[in-house]
Amino acid sequence: MNPCEASDGPPGGPGVKKARLESSAVKVAGRKLRAGTVPWRWTAGSSVQVLLIEGINTPGKWTFPAGSLDPGEEVASCAARETQEECGASGTLGCFLGTFDTEKNRSYMFSMYVQHLEDDGNEAWHDPHSAYDTSLRRRRWLDVEAARPLLKKDGPQVLEAFLSIPEGRRQDARYRALHKHSEQSRFLVMGAPGTLRDHCAQWGSILEVPSSLDSLTESQLFAAVAAALWEADAAVLCGGADMFYMAGISARQDIPVLLITGENVPGLLSGDSRIASFVLESESETTFAAEACRRIDDFMKQLRTALTV
């Protein structure tokens, strides 16, 4: 059967969406954060196929698996979890494809080389965590050209982002497609007073993230900030314990970090070559700002050199 003619919906027709507490959603700038993957495999003829799922409430419209980020969850973990729940696929999470925005959502998408598909050969899939009153949906392996006309919303853009990745880098979790096509560096800046934040903005764009002053739980705040790291070329962090933690998880993702603090930096953190840490103890705000700006400039110059190599 021609997949483009596959318009029959799942048993029971379109589902009715269940109520979900909006207060539990992780949002930034009014958009709900989501994560998902482009599941793919090689065929016997060495061509690429992608795994699509049919929308439970939109029969005939297909997309890639993705779902809402839970409070306290990291987006890569969310992408793998949602892929398994929505289509039964698991495998190697590869490169970060970028963020894709709609009016209501921001989706963080990754490639996934599928190594196992539950109940393989059966097109129907039971999604136990479906947001609708039915849990049955269809899934289908398709060649790229057959997949294109079926994709809804931002699906075509996600597919093109996947196809733009060199074949040898699709399974490379350290490769970020977003950064290769960005004209301006993007920075995660946290804890910095307005003067330092404005100074950082002279070197690139500042990612929008919530702060502890926003009406978020600690788990929601973590999820939103950790998500922003996937978009960042570098992080500038000012403060104590919370910023030490952020420096650690930033470095884990191989993101260069400038840590400016008035406290002693723990030995292992100060020994990490990915983290440039400086203890500034000036009692004068003017002196502190001048020295911090100098450190920021030195850090940004080194970063710019590294990014152009």
From TrEMBL:
Highest taxon of the lineage: Eukaryota
Keyword terms, alphabetized: Hydrolase, Metal-binding
InterPro entries hit by this protein: NUDIX_hydrolase-like_dom_sf, NUDIX_hydrolase_CS, NUDIX_hydrolase_dom
Alphabetized GO MF terms: hydrolase activity; metal ion binding
Gene Ontology CC annotations of this record: cytoplasm; nucleus
UniProt cross-references to PROSITE patterns, sorted A to Z: NUDIX (PS51462), NUDIX_BOX (PS00893)
Stated name of the protein: Diphosphoinositol polyphosphate phosphohydrolase 1
